[in-house]
From TrEMBL:
Residues 178-199 are annotated as: Disordered. The lineage of its organism: Bacteria, Pseudomonadati, Pseudomonadota, Gammaproteobacteria, Enterobacterales. It comes from the Bacteria. This is Phage protein. Residues 183-199 have a biased composition (Polar residues).
Amino acid sequence: MATPDWEAIESAYRAGVLSLREIASQHGISDTAIRKRAKKEEWTRDLAAKVKAKADDLVRKREVRAKVRSENQISERELVEATAEAIANVRMEHRGDIKRARELANLLFSELSAECADVESLHKLGELMLSPDDKGQDKLNDLYHKIISMPQRVKSMKDLSDTLKTLIGLEREAYSIKEDEPSSVNKGTSLNDFYNTNS
């Protein structure tokens, strides 16, 4: 029969966690033998309180770690919600800005349409405003006729068309409207371009 590991048995005894029968079973001896040895060498189960205190401390630490992890998860969720809210606000502002710009472009289109519908009246107005100087020149009237001329109206039409094309592209981007193929409507135009141009 192998000699019992009395050093290990003493350590287990002093720890006070296992019962004498459990210690005896692990080492293949009787609990009576352990009692006799403990009495003879004056072993005490004085570590039980320390072991319990350590176990309690570990439990508290694990509870704290679990709580911290839970709080971190809550903080992450709050951060995601706050960031998403900020992005949503910016996108709504972009949509509002684009809507106002498009409404203004349509008003300018209407104004140009009205101008083109009655060019004759514009020319008559120019004649009424005619006020030449001593040299027979009227620079203000000349400028007026240049503004209402066909080339200028064509240029205004082209500029407004380009503006509307840009705004339509921006509007589709702001509302996340995608196309199967890239369109020339929004090619090379983005919200960043719009705000950089108009800032």
